[in-house]
Design a protein that fits this description.
single chain, 335 residues, 13 strands
Length: 335
């Protein structure tokens, strides 16, 4: 039995990743360590909570005693670190939680992995560590310099550098992935695409920063999870793998596409004051992971958006509870 620790598994990407691993690897056992902050929701994993190959533990990755206890108890083969404070606007208001979780928490996990001899440590990062691109700049590669522009991306960049240090100094088998913007089911309602869908469903104004011309590369969370699975198993220690879908769109174009798919008027668009340090463009060159593992994204973007509109429409109870702050019943240990 292969034992995998997934941190932040009750979040958007984490819950989709756990579901993917349980489906694809019938001899894998997963421990999900999650603090259950505003972004963590056990209802994201309601369909697997009784699976005998899944265990939930409520706790903080920055808690050294708890993390060490889990590593001694379970003797993990692999670690996938998805636990992170990840909302840029929140990091601008208060950077402190981002330092605690994204930097200190990652170091605590790395040290436990070193002490207990894990086979592979996968750090799930973001393309935001590279900073911003101009309209005509080539997409980021793994060799692009790290130039974060927000407290959130700075904290993720620091965590990536700590991972590199543990690989170079201690020989810990660490791999890092940096992915473009994700979309898909179970994404928190405060995020960009869910906000568009839910506001459109309610015929409410859809806030768009600045002139809406900021560009992002979008990938479906299921394609991201397939890539993470490959890198976790086959990635070379010390390597960075960029994950993207060559799918660049302006924010305004995405809003208009969703409104068209929902038969809603563009008069719902409401331009608002731009946020501080708003990166102009992100774009990922995924050639490294494509050539190394023959990985390609499979989900068409427009089809994926249409499917997501249907999902949010059908899962009103889920997102209403999240938006209202209603806490699901906690099933699992507090170690």
């Amino acid at each position: 039995m292969v034992k995998l620790l997934v941190t932040g598994g009750a979040g958007f990407i984490g819950s989709n990743f756990i579901r993917h691993i349980l489906k694809e690897h019938h001899d894998w056992y997963i421990v999900n360590l999650d603090k259950l902050t505003y972004a963590g929701n056990l209802e994201n994993l309601k369909d697997v909570e009784d699976n005998p190959r899944y265990r939930f533990v409520r706790g903080d990755i920055a808690d050294r005693e708890l993390v060490d206890h889990l590593f001694r108890e379970e003797k993990f083969d692999f670690v996938t670190n998805l636990a992170a404070e990840s909302h840029v606007d929140r990091s601008i208001l208060d950077p402190a939680p981002f330092i605690e979780t994204n930097i200190k928490g990652t170091q605590v996990l790395l040290e436990a992995a070193r002490q207990h001899g894990v086979r592979k440590f996968l750090q799930v990062s973001t393309d935001e560590v590279y900073g911003s691109l101009g309209p005509d700049d080539p997409p980021f590669t793994e060799e692009s310099p790290i130039r974060p522009n927000s407290p959130y991306s700075a904290s993720k960049a620091a965590a990536d550098l700590m991972c590199r240090a543990y690989f170079v100094t201690y020989g810990l088998p660490v791999v890092i992935t940096r992915c473009s913007n994700n979309y898909g089911p179970y994404q928190h309602p405060e995020k960009f695409i869910p906000t568009i869908i839910l506001n459109a469903l309610a015929d409410k104004p859809i806030p768009v920063y600045g002139d809406g011309q900021n560009v992002r590369d979008w990938i479906h969370v299921e394609d991201h999870c397939r890539a993470l699975d490959l890198v976790l198993q086959k990635g070379q220690a010390g390597e960075v793998y960029n994950i993207g879908a060559n799918n660049e769109h302006t924010n305004l174009d995405i809003v208009k596409t969703i409104l068209r798919l929902m038969n809603k008027p563009e008069s719902l668009i409401a331009f608002v004051k731009d946020r501080p340090g708003h990166d102009w463009r992100y774009a990922i060159n995924p050639a490294h992971i494509e050539t190394t593992f023959s990985w390609r994204p499979q989900r068409d973007f427009t089809t994926g958006l249409y499917d997501l509109i249907i999902w949010y429409t059908a899962n009103r109870i889920w997102w209403e509870r999240v938006k209202s702050g209603g806490a699901p019943g906690v099933r699992g240990e507090v170690v």
